[in-house]
Amino acid sequence: MTADRWVPEARLRGDLPVTDAASAAEHVPDDATMLVSGFGSVGYPKAVPLALAEADRDLALTVVSGGSVGSEIDTALVEAGAVARRYPYAGTPEARAAANEGRVATSDRHVSAVADEARFGHYGPPDVAVVEAVACGPDWLVPSGSLGQTPAFVEAADALVVEVNEALPRELALVHDVWTPADPPQREPVPLTDPGERIGSPRIPFDPAKLRAVVRTDRRDDAYEFRDPTPEVEAVAANLRAFLAGEVGRDPCPGRLRMQFGVGSLGNAMMAELGDLDAPVEYVGEVIQDGLLDMVDAGDLSVVSGTALALSREGQDRLFADLERYAEALVLRPAEVSNAPGVVSRMGVVAVNAAVEVDLYGHVNSTHVEGSRLLNGLGGSGDFWRNAALSVVAVPSTAGDGDISRVVPLATHVDHTEHDVDVLVTDHGVADLRGTSPRERAERILACAAPEFRDDLRAYLGRAGDEGHEPHDLPSAFDWRA
């Protein structure tokens, strides 16, 4: 199928209720469930959340986003005491502190499930959607730098407020492919058979009776700042590349790699290692980072399918200056399509994500430090790891300047069980866990730990003994250093 590649002729079309941010914010009830656009800290509303934060109101909002958003929501609104509940991600230090201190009730959710959970009122009746766009008409809008859950939020909410961001090019319409599923039990499979296929439209339609306000803005998203890779990160990337080179030509990679990487400096660094692999590479994931633009420019990547443009300022400028060319390769889909279990499985994705820690039997902690302190959010890692053809944990073996081992006897919090992980890659090697028993996994994972921690990990296994399917010495599981 071929999508409509239409670009709007103007930012605003028709008779629209254009107003200022403070007036638009009055359409958000004090205790509203407010659904906001945004994913990967891209494409979120800015002016209306700031107006809410500055308003002299007793707000107790439930804020639901597609993924992480910027400081206007997760800092200003939180610090104003306006947020009572937050789903599904705590993306700023202020939001994490509020969650860890119990000031904001937070629940982490799998990205692929958020759209339905909003539709069906799991977070409360969806009162209002506040979303960012690059253009708007009386019954349609064109999203900005992400799709995320925006189509589902616009559909579900009783009322709609649109921020039209004039700092972003209208030509972003060229990369959007909006397709939404029917509700169960009438839901059919996503009709996507190739990662470069377009099955929808660049516009999100809505009932014109919902539209309460349109606010004109001109403020870009905060840009990603990718750190220079450390020697440890470079070693992880090199080990991953060597492993993937050996996988090409065998299942699930029959001469082609369809990759997904988590957002961040580690994922960006690993992309740079894929250019000279002896196989065509396609990206089928969530977030589109600078490294993927580099691969498109080098001719090493023909398809980039995701749901958000998580780019540095230089990456944003490069994309916006040549959108028509990049749009031949780039496509943004709703998260309930990009992360759909059936789509991930059908595409044969090799999913590569990082972690806080991995235990000796392969259980993965992605979100909490010392078992209780929320660090970030689950994001889409569960959607991809559980449904990918090959699931890879890629992470340096240590944290805290080498003082903390990321390989531990027993994970203090489990986001992904041993059943969802196929391979561990660290700066010290690769543990291929496919087809292994728990005791075999422990030996392979131990070999990927930093050398200075291996003796203590080996001593732990000795104390655990031979009893049980996954032997543990629980009294020392969290105090295992000699």
UniProtKB/TrEMBL annotation:
Domain (Acetyl-CoA hydrolase/transferase N-terminal): give its ranges: 21-211
Question: What keywords were assigned to this record?
Answer: Hydrolase
**Which stretches does the entry tag as region Disordered?**
184-203
Q: Which InterPro entries match?
A: AcetylCoA_hyd_C, AcetylCoA_hyd_C_sf, ActCoA_hydro, ActCoA_hydro_N, NagB/RpiA_transferase-like
Any Gene Ontology biological process: acetate metabolic process
Domain of life of the organism encoding this protein: Archaea
Identify its protein family: Belongs to the acetyl-CoA hydrolase/transferase family.
Protein name, entry field: Acetyl-CoA hydrolase
Q: Which organism is it from?
A: Salinirubellus salinus
